[in-house]
């Protein structure tokens, strides 16, 4: 039996995304547009397997072959005949659903490996005796031999995603260290190249000198082409005594399918903004050009209030251990008009609310670029997981000068964050009913503020390539020091490249803190329809939820490496520490013993002190966060943030001991079953599935009806071509090499 940290329990929550009504309201043309965008997203999402672990593509290919030959019900009979219990077979289905849901064998939320919760020998009998193995015995046996050991292995380095000795990642070859990642970032900055769509591969030559390959994601390879924007960069470089080679063609056959679907979607675009957006995305994925993706993002920002909303590309850098490379994701969604109306009112109040934030006006953007902010019902979200809200694009230069869009994913919020009273942990009994009543509404408020005024606020001080500054060096004063600004971002530097490993978590912490701070403003609560005691309850539950989340975050801390595995949860722990530091009994964490006799804990928030003690503490903290971000002061920023993020056993909280309690009582994140769209003649149909592990597997079984076997072969070939970079981890399948 594996440690419960590394398994998905048989009773894991599974929910289906409901978008039936929103899809029904689409016109035939809008449905076709949504269908082809969804196909593009699902194809591109397969690249995540190649961005996660060396074995993930093989596991996916093995599972897909297994379930194509026999659906879960048919395979059950075979499994029982092979000696599995029904519980063991369910454990396998949950594992398979987890792989599909996370696009790999590491949790998207926490980056922890999960393994099948049944004996390896029994699973081997099921696989090698399956109908898939009967049809293709050599291929199935080869896949099992390649990934079977790694599927179950919990060697210390393989338990988490990470770099060097800290874990496994396929954003970098297996011998790369954090020092290699920093050197590569300096090289990319020197050439004004973005890391978002790259991976780094290191080899040592005969003289013992390292040689680095920076590989861009693209359909095109290194053959000469007419796209001088990228081809001029495809060459050898000497940098700080090391050899770098910039190449492209990563995930080429996968991106080819993405481009083909985007081309089809273009025929059904609602306007020229959408058409030009898709043209630039296709150029980006074909050539490997982030600049083209930026151009596409500009058109996307300008496409205000579309009925069908979407975004696609190498977007979030949470899972890159260095914090610069983007994981592929794509989403397609439809507008929820009722909630969107509230968000539009929030946008209309944004300029006034920005003035309430606790930093000087000179640290705010020169002009607030009014964004779109809509509540969406998700049709498709391809990648490693589904967030509750998004503020994109992530390109600093676009955000500062062109703007951004905010989206709240309404039907995700409705299922992913619903809580049953009996499963509520770490709350006092008298808080539980109030928490259940107001958690959803308070989370709507928090997501709105977090995305719009958290991620949407603040200015970066920049000196461009011509030496010009976007702030007045003479008059702008640092409120923390009382002196003129001493540091800023140089040309080519970005927030992610400069703050690297802490960038994502630091920014999430800033956005979460803004949400907590501004939810105290009566105007905000009125926008969402809350007044009087209801408004006070929303505030209390929002703050209580953050405090509880800070405690739950300890699940995602690894004591052995003294590191955090999840940016959002690290951010919430930092906020908990800030509020505890405020003192005066605002927040208390109380160790207790549960009714089962095992260790437990409760969080207490004194609601009478939220404004008098909590608000001033957040004011001080938020100003520090923003000033250090604006000025690009990495040294002081790290010292501040890593100080709060430190997990020790110092009394009174004794967080390392509390972590054991949190692990003892943790609840797994839900799996979400998404629908498919199917083109029948010229009409698009919505195909839905039951909320179960079998339903999730069935959705993937039917996701690629035309080319499933081809996609599996592509994944095997791509993984095998690079297997040498992780030779200490994985042995390529002999029949595929």
From TrEMBL:
Zn(2+) binds at residues 450, 455, 508. Binds 1 zinc ion per subunit. It is an enzyme of class 3 (hydrolase). InterPro entries: Dipeptidyl-peptase3, Peptidase_M49. Its cofactor is Zn(2+). GO terms for biological process: proteolysis. The keyword Zinc applies. This is Dipeptidyl peptidase 3. It comes from Jaculus jaculus (Lesser Egyptian jerboa). Its EC number is 3.4.14.4. GO terms for molecular function: aminopeptidase activity; dipeptidyl-peptidase activity; metalloexopeptidase activity; zinc ion binding. Belongs to the peptidase M49 family. It catalyses: Release of an N-terminal dipeptide from a peptide comprising four or more residues, with broad specificity. Also acts on dipeptidyl 2-naphthylamides. Its main location: cytoplasm. The active site is at residue 451. The keyword Ligase does not apply. Keywords: Acetylation, Aminopeptidase, Cytoplasm, Hydrolase, Metal-binding, Metalloprotease, Protease, Zinc. It is found in: Cytoplasm. GO terms for cellular component: cytosol. It holds the Pfam family Peptidase_M49.
């Amino acid at each position: 039996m594996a440690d419960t940290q590394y398994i998905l329990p048989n009773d894991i929550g599974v929910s289906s995304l409901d978008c039936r009504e929103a899809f029904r309201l689409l016109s035939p043309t809008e449905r076709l547009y949504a269908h082809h965008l969804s196909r593009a997203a699902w194809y591109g999402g397969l690249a995540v397997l190649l961005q996660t672990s060396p074995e993930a593509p093989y596991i996916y290919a093995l599972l897909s072959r297994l379930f194509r030959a026999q659906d879960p019900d048919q395979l059950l009979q075979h499994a029982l005949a092979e000696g599995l219990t029904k519980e063991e077979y369910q454990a396998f289905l949950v594992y398979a659903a987890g792989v599909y849901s996370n696009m790999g064998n590491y949790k998207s939320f926490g980056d922890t490996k999960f393994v099948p919760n049944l004996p390896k020998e029994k699973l081997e009998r099921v696989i090698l005796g399956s109908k898939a193995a009967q049809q293709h015995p050599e291929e199935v046996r080869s896949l099992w031999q390649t990934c079977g050991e790694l599927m179950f292995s919990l060697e210390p380095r393989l338990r988490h995603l990470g770099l060097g000795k800290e874990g496994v990642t396929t954003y970098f070859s297996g011998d790369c260290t954090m020092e290699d990642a920093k050197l590569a970032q300096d090289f990319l900055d020197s050439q004004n190249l973005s890391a978002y769509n790259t991976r780094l591969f290191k080899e040592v030559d005969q003289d013992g000198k390292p040689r680095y390959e920076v590989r861009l994601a693209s359909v095109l390879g290194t053959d000469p082409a007419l796209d001088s924007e990228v081809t001029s960069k495809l060459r050898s470089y000497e940098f700080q005594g090391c050899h770098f080679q910039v190449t492209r063609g990563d995930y080429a056959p996968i991106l080819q399918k993405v481009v083909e679907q985007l081309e089809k979607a273009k025929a059904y675009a609602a306007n020229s903004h959408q058409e030009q957006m898709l043209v630039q995305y296709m150029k980006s994925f074909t050539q490997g050009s982030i600049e083209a993706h930026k151009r596409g993002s500009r058109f996307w920002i300008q496409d205000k209030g579309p009925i069908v909303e979407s975004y696609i590309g190498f977007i979030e850098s949470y899972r890159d251990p260095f914090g610069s490379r983007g994981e592929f994701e794509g989403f397609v969604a439809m507008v929820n008009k009722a909630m969107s109306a509230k968000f539009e009112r929030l946008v209309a109040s944004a300029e006034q609310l920005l003035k309430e934030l606790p930093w000087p006006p000179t640290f705010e953007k020169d002009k607030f670029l009014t964004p779109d902010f809509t509540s969406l019902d998700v049709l498709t979200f391809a990648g490693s997981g589904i967030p509750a809200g998004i503020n994109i694009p992530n390109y600093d230069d676009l955000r500062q000068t062109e703007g951004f869009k905010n989206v709240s994913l309404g039907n995700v919020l409705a299922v992913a964050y619903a809580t049953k009273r009996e499963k509520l942990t770490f709350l006092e009994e008298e808080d539980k009913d109030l928490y259940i009543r107001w958690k959803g509404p308070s989370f709507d408020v928090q997501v709105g503020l977090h995305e719009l005024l958290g991620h949407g606020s603040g200015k970066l001080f920049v000196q461009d390539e011509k030496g010009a500054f976007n702030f007045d060096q003479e008059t702008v004063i640092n409120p923390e020091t009382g002196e003129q600004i001493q540091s800023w971002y140089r040309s080519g530097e970005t927030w992610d490249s400069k703050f690297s490993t802490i960038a994502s978590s630091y920014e999430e912490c800033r956005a979460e803190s803004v949400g907590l701070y501004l939810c105290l403003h009566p105007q905000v609560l009125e926008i969402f329809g809350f007044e009087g005691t209801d408004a006070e309850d929303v505030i209390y539950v929002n703050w209580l939820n953050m405090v509880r989340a800070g405690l739950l975050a300890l699940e995602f801390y690894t004591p052995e490496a003294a590191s955090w595995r999840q940016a959002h949860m690290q951010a919430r722990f930092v906020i908990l520490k800030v509020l505890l530091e405020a003192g005066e009994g605002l927040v208390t964490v109380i160790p207790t013993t549960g009714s089962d006799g095992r260790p437990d804990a409760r969080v207490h928030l004194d609601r009478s002190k939220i404004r008098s003690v909590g608000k001033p503490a957040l004011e001080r903290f938020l100003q520090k966060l923003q000033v250090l971000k604006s000025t690009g002061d990495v040294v002081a920023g790290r010292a501040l943030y890593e100080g709060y993020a430190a997990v020790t056993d110092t009394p009174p909280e004794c967080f390392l001991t509390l972590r054991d309690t949190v692990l003892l009582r943790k609840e797994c994140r839900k799996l979400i079953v998404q629908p498919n769209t199917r083109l029948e003649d010229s009409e698009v149909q919505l195909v839905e599935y039951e909320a179960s592990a079998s339903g999730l597997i069935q959705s993937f079984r039917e996701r690629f009806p035309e080319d499933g076997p081809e996609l599996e072969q592509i994944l095997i070939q791509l993984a095998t071509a690079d297997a040498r970079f992780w030779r200490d981890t994985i042995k390529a399948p002999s029949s595929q090499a």
